[in-house]
Fold this protein.
Amino acid sequence: MTKKQITKDTQNKKTPPPSFVKMAMRNMVRKGNQSLSHFAITAIGFIGFILIVACIGRPNLPN
């Protein structure tokens, strides 16, 4: 192969579109505080949900 063929081959190859993970990370970096606050709200909500389910589902054992 000559140098011209190699450069043509590399120019013809298209880069694949970015993955959803890369796009999400880019958006998270761009939006900064909003992403962190949404993550915190989600984490607090999930922990609250787990605690409520644990309280409701607690077995009542006789003394």
Summary: The longest helix spans residues 33-56. The chain has three helices and no strands.
